[in-house]
Amino acid sequence: METAFKYLISTIFLTLVIKGSCNCPLNSLQIVQRLQGQVQGKSQWIVSVINHCNCPQSQILLSCKGFQTVEGINPTILAKQGDNCLLYNGHALYPNDIDEFAYAWDPSFPFVPISSVTGSPCRSQNEIHDDMDFKGLENL
């Protein structure tokens, strides 16, 4: 009985370590900007933040020292905190999901991720790939 209990505890522990431990590097957050049009004579930019990690990331902070815009941004979408900006009130951005916001200024601003908190559960590459295949079928 004691051996079975030790085996069960070891299995649970290893499952948590393998499945639940993940540390997302900052370069797993990709920032893409595309020109959308004009607002008050300034170029309007759509910023996409994409999570390429297998785990959700929350409390995403972007460096935004010197950031300016003539287009108002809801502070629940991008909240300036000194020289940094908190993305979407710190909510979790799941694997391969995208958060977007718009601003208007010339030239575009070089947003850079400076920190995030890695969450769980982390997903395997197969789970992410299967989910992406399913999302592709929805568009047919």
Automatic annotation (TrEMBL):
Record GO biological process: cell fate determination
Keywords: Signal
Signal peptide, first to last residue: 1-22
Domain of life: Eukaryota
Name used for this protein in its record: Uncharacterized protein
Organism: Trifolium subterraneum
